[in-house]
Design goal:
TIM Barrel, alpha/beta, nine-stranded mixed beta sheet, single chain, Enzyme I, Chain A, domain 2
């Protein structure tokens, strides 16, 4: 987080916009006293069982507390109850529960310190995962451990449901359980030191449609109770002690934004078709079957990216074919006849699934992940492919291979897919053999070899998140270089255009599933490239559809010729503003 303080004491703090919108009001600090001050002490052999029992009692008490929260979860959050159910499972997770008991017994240390040590080790394990959504799953473990820790140290638990005044929450961190207790008539929004957009807390905030800014580092040390603050969840800005002029400006923005949201949500189920008749399928990115309700509510035209990693991360063991199949079937049936694009496993399985430390990569972003891991572990891969193929009997399914960098990888992946299909045929299992197969275009070599890769697949899906990272050599989680990470970088635009051109020339489809697709300001460019399918988080769908309906594809095509001549991001943005400034200012509340 960075801060800018003006002469009249106004201070601006910059974090991560986790949930869009604006709220203005008084700060209310939420603390968890006693959890941060943990001391280590020795436990005698004769007292070890008592210490283990003390830990078990704390776990059971924490489970009962969470169960009570689940039973009283507000109606508007019922679709996200699965998040808290996942936390219930984590209470007895092998890597957390059993490992803590083992640490108490082996090292003769107190339960608090053992739990703290185990969680620190788990954080280190998850740190090497590149996918931002999966990386933030460690937050779930931290939240569960904190609830146990509160009971071990005898500290008071946070009860947000008891807050009886209209305020903005300020906290070091909020768990999904904390967030699910928010009463919308009382809590206007929240800001936290920790967390990010992909966290479960962020997901719940977006479901509640309240503004949230996370990852502010030390906001709890800066803001005091009853300070007047402005939270801008779209841009990730928090303003402390705003001036009169700033308040007027943000009250106006707030009114405009809320009117805009009401309008686009009302029209979210309309077709995404330009003024001159060019149609775009606006799809959703999901991680869990429980998110289908949100996709339908926001007018999604299907699932453009179904990430399949969560089933692997939520277990200490590889899921079985039947377990995978049941999840895939639930998604495919629920959205049928609309399409579901199922991406195969996109993590380093050894790190994410098993409790192993023997395999340690110096640079995991360039190591054994995604398709590389699957090809090295064909049994794991084939199990997933069989489950996906079985799900094709229940709807419209496509398969997507991630992080393809060579033609050999595609050929080998398709060979294993054929083997999986052959084995199902021999067993008499009903499935669709001629399933569409695509690859993620997210590394530069795939862009360069797109014309050859097109021979082996039915579609390309451009993953701009990794493509930007790998092409520009930028770690967007590194605050020193994150400002260079931009989808409108001319190099990225030229790469995307090349892929789109190749796809048309070779007669295959081209889609986009990266974050670039979900921002309305990028839509003129994507229309200019004639993208026929875009995929994004469900909450972004109405705004993108609204933007598409306001544009002409012929205008966008003409604009692309000028955009491709630009040499830096600011010039691209200026062209967008000059040509679409009126529309964008109407669609985006930040003028």
């Amino acid at each position: 987080m960075t801060a800018i303080e003006t002469e009249d004491k106004e201070m601006r703090l910059y974090g991560i916009g986790a949930s869009p919108g604006i709220c203005i009001g008084k700060a209310y600090l939420v603390g968890k006293e006693g959890v941060d001050v943990i001391k280590k002490y020795h436990i005698a052999e004769s007292r070890l069982q008592n210490e283990v029992n003390r830990f078990k009692i704390a776990v059971e008490k924490a489970k009962k507390e969470l169960q009570g929260i689940i039973e009283n979860i507000p109606q508007e959050l019922r679709e996200h109850a699965y998040i808290l159910e996942t936390h219930m499972v984590l209470f007895k997770d092998k890597l957390l529960y059993e490992k803590t008991i083992e640490t108490i017994e082996n090292e003769h240390i107190n339960a608090e310190w053992a739990l703290k040590k185990v969680v620190s080790n788990l954080k280190a394990m998850f740190h090497n995962i590149q996918d931002s959504y999966l990386k933030e799953r460690v937050d779930d473990i931290v939240h569960v451990s904190e609830r146990i820790m509160l009971n071990l140290v005898g500290a008071e638990t946070v009860n947000i449901a008891d807050i009886d005044k209209r305020v903005i929450l300020v906290a070091h961190d909020l768990s999904p359980a904390d967030t699910s207790q928010i009463q919308l008539e009382k809590i206007m929004g929240f800001i936290t030191d920790r967390g990010g957009r992909a966290s479960h807390t962020g997901i719940i905030a977006r479901s509640l449609e309240i503004p949230a800014v996370m990852g502010l580092d030390n906001v709890t040390a800066i803001i005091k109770n009853d300070d007047i603050i402005i939270v801008d969840g779209t841009s990730g800005i928090v303003i402390v002690h705003p001036t009169e002029d700033t308040l007027k400006d943000y009250f106006r923005r707030k009114i405009n934004y809320e009117a805009y949201q009401e309008s686009i949500n009302r029209d979210g189920h309309l077709l995404a078709e330009t003024v001159d008749g060019f149609s775009v399928q606006v799809m959703a990115n999901i991680e869990l079957s429980e998110e289908i309700a949100s996709v339908i509510d926001h007018g999604g035209d299907g699932i453009g990216l179904y990430r399949t990693e969560f089933q692997y991360l939520s277990s200490a063991f590889f899921p079985s074919e039947d377990e995978l199949f049941e999840k895939y079937k639930a998604v495919v049936e629920a959205i049928a006849p609309k399409p579901v694009v199922i991406r195969t496993l996109d993590i380093n399985g050894d790190k994410a699934i098993a409790d192993t430390s023997e395999f340690d990569e110096t640079n995991p972003a360039l190591g054994l992940r995604a398709i590389r891991y699957c090809l090295k572990n064909p049994d794991v891969f084939k199990t997933q492919l069989r489950a996906i193929l079985r799900a094709t009997a229940f709807g419209n399914v496509r398969i997507l291979f991630p992080m393809i960098s060579t033609c050999e990888e595609v050929r080998e992946a398709r060979r294993i897919l054929d083997e999986a299909a052959d084995s199902l045929e021999k067993e008499g299992v009903v499935f669709k053999r001629n399933i569409e197969v695509g690859i993620m275009i997210e590394v530069p070599s795939a862009v360069i070899m797109a014309d050859v890769l097109a021979q082996y697949v039915d579609f390309f899906s451009i993953g701009t998140n990794d493509l930007i990272q790998y092409s520009l050599a930028i770690d967007r989680d590194n605050k020193d270089v994150a400002h260079l990470y931009h989808p409108l970088n001319p190099a990225i635009l030229r790469m995307v255009k090349h892929v789109a051109d190749v796809a048309r020339e070779k007669g295959i489809k081209v889609y986009m599933c990266g974050e670039m697709a979900g921002d309305p300001i990028h839509i003129p460019i994507l229309l200019g490239l004639e993208m026929v399918e875009l995929s994004m988080n469900p909450q972004a769908i109405p705004a993108v559809k609204s933007m598409i309906r306001a544009l002409k594809v012929e205008d966008a095509r003409r604009l692309m010729k000028d955009i491709l001549k630009q040499t830096d991001v600011k010039d691209v943005l200026k062209l967008l503003q000059d040509n679409y400034g009126t529309i964008i200012s109407e669609k985006m509340y930040t003028e």
